[in-house]
Amino acid sequence: MRNDRDRWERRYADRGRHALDPPSEFLRRHESRIPPGPVLDVAAGDGRNALYLARRGHPVDAIDIAFAALQRVASAARAEGLKLRAVQADLDDFPLPRDHYAAVVNIRYLQRSLFAPLKRAVRPGGLVIFETFLIDQRFVGHPTNPDHLLQHGELAARFSDFEILFSEEGLFETEGGATFLGRLVARRPG
Question: What pTM was computed for the model?
């Protein structure tokens, strides 16, 4: 994982003072469904989604492997007086709390070994908001590695034990252009 961390550190350090990208359109569309309470933003990067959620009144834990990215989000949160905790961690070996979050947000990141921990981290009645690249994305742009691309129907299958409130797959116009995505909003039973 050291190579991964170095690559992401360089990416975020190279961005310098570049303005943050806008939050995910999908997250903005479904944020009002999130019940009160803490939210986890997985692979938060430099915080476009974490800051959006904190500005909407949610206390946020933003987890990422890249310290440079987290410095940006933490600095912005402090400047605005937001409730946001930046946590540098490798999600391969970082234990997520159980039954803690009102919502877990996973945008544009796929680590299949995290499905079960993410499901356990959300409290009963809480939401998982998930959006990431679909296998078809490899034909039009980044990423191309199948390990980082959802198979058709994979999200719905992985969350079949949750109440699926919204699910879609396809080519969508997003804040970053046309992208093949799988999207899901699911509520943990109980």
Answer: 0.89
